[in-house]
Amino acid sequence: MSTSASVRPYGGINAEQRAAERRERLLEAGLDLLGSADESVALTVRGVCSQAGVVARYFYEGFTDVDALAVEVYERVIQNLVTETLAALTVPSNDERQQIRTGLTAIVAHLAADPRRGRLMFGTALTHPALTAKRLEMVRMFTGLLTAQAESFYKTEPTARLDAIARFLVGGFGEALTAWQHGDVDLSQSELVDVCVEMFTSSADPLRQGSP
Questions:
Q1: Does residue 212 surpass a pLDDT of 80?
Q2: Comparing 31 with 207, which gets the higher pLDDT?
Q3: Chain-centroid distance, C-alpha 173
Q4: Is the torsion defined by CA of 69, 174, 178, 198 positive or negative?
Q5: Which of 84, 89, 127, 180 gives 20 to 30 Å between its CA and that of 39?
Q6: Please, is 70 exposed, middle or buried when counting C-beta atoms within 10 Å of its C-beta (0-12, 13-18, 19+)?
Q7: What is the tens place of the pLDDT at every residue in 57-111?
Q8: In this structure, are residues 25 and 55 in contact, taking their beta carbons and an 8 Å threshold?
Q9: Read out DSSP for 24-37?
Q10: pLDDT category, 209, cuts 50, 70, 90?
Q11: Domains in the chain: ranges and CATH
């Protein structure tokens, strides 16, 4: 088959567009499986291809193996969460509580809008070997983002104390989200945000007092 014949448009869509659409379906199928409420669901090439409605050869067109797919799905979920949260914080505020509420509301709302995201980030999908290191990267990234926000808001320099506070808050917030996601914490979305705002605000006392 000639090169021109192999890439000619089919149904008004060229080969590159079709490959991009298949890749998108595979990523969405990967999120379906990794973020499934059924903890027995495993991520396999056969399973993800069946979910996406493509044959196996198209899987290998875009991914070397299921680990590569899992990592890309996870990274995309995290990046979208970060982008949406930072967008919510673009309007500066001198109101500490409101600034904290804005950020936490954006995070909780983003995860609530698609429960697969929260199950991927905090659920059993993290037993997948390829995602174990990614969770550690996620914690470090959110710690860095929280530290940067605190340094900017409180006009403080980076300190070991600030780093410890940020790690404590990120870890605790993650545990609260996990419990809420699994239904172990019986709170509405707004009530969860209220509780977390109180915790974050209380933990900021050393920064307001200018502690070294």
A1: no
A2: 31
A3: 14
A4: negative
A5: 84
A6: buried
A7: 999 988 999 999 999 999 999 999 999 999 998 877 788 899 999 999 999 999 9
A8: no
A9: HHHHHHHHHHHT-S
A10: low
A11: 13-66 (1.10.10), 67-208 (1.10.357.10)
Question: What residues form DSSP beta bridges with 10?
Answer: 13
DSSP H helical ranges for the chain:
3-6, 15-34, 45-52, 56-62, 66-88, 96-113, 115-122, 129-154, 160-181, 189-203, 205-208
Q: How far apart are CA 137 and CA 149, in angstroms?
A: 18
Structure-block tokens of residue 176: 């609260």
- The tokens describing 134, both together, are 């990614």
DSSP letter assigned to residue 124: G
Residue 211 in this model has a pLDDT that exceeds 50: no
Quote the tokens at residue 116: 């697969």
The mean pLDDT of the chain is: 86
Distance CA 210, CA 212 (A): 6
- 115-161 tens-digit pLDDT: 999 888 887 556 677 888 888 888 899 999 999 888 888 888 888 88
The pair phi, psi for residue 13, each rounded to 5°, is -120, 125
Q: How far is the C-alpha of 7 from the C-alpha of 10, rounded, in Å?
A: 9
